[in-house]
Every structure is written in C-alpha cells, then in structure tokens.
Amino acid sequence: MDDATITFDAQGGTFKDDSLKTGMTAPILSEVDSSKVPSVAKSGNAFGGWYYDAACTEGKKWDANTARMPGKDITLYAKWTERTGPVAPRRPGDAVSPGICPGQPGKAFNKYKESDYSEANWKKAGGRI
Prior knowledge:
The protein is built from one helix and seven strands. The protein is mainly β and about 130 residues long. The strands form two sheets. Strands 3-1-7-5-6 form a five-stranded mixed beta sheet, with no helix packed on it. A two-stranded antiparallel ribbon has the order 2-4. The chain is elongated.
C-alpha cells in the first residue's frame, strides 16, 4: 500500500515540538496517529484547529480523531484568532474594562497571566495586582 504525507503549516505560529513540524507519513487510509499532530502557539493568538485550506474556511476543519490518512499528500493550515480581552480588575468585585495598547487604538491587551487571578495572589497583593 502507498503512503501519504500530511504536512502542517503553522501560518506564522511556532511548533512546540520541532520534530513534529515535518508532518506525518503513513499508509493511505490508515488511522491518523494523533500523537504526531503538532501543537503550535502564536503570541497574542488562540489556536483554532487545523484546516484543509489556508483561509481556514468553516466546514473545512480537519479532525485528527476521525481522520484517516488521505489518498495523496496534503498540507493542513493552522487557524489563528487574535486574542483581545479585558485587563484584570484592581480589586475583586471591581468592573473589568478593556485596556488599550499604546499606538494601537482599539486593540485590547492583558498583561496578566491566568495564574495572577488566583485568590491567593489577590491576598498576597493586598487586593491589587
């Protein structure tokens, strides 16, 4: 049986494990080895999955859990959605409002990590982060 190769294009993102960025090769119609599907990251963006086309068109998302190896070599493309969000409130109970990136009006930012929002960190900071 012939083999096919799935290549992954991170579209500006980075591969968390460089050994997986070259893709996977397996016999046509065999099950996809999900352990060989690369994880990717892109600063300021949320990963939205792998797609059959570079435009990441709805309805063309690839699912490693149900996919079989294709009948020919293909490239899958990472979908990215820019993260925008509120900044942390100054004290628990304060309203959360979006911050604005200097030089980029209307673009929200969040300089805090998720762990900064823990109750323990609020107490350590005296209600201020």
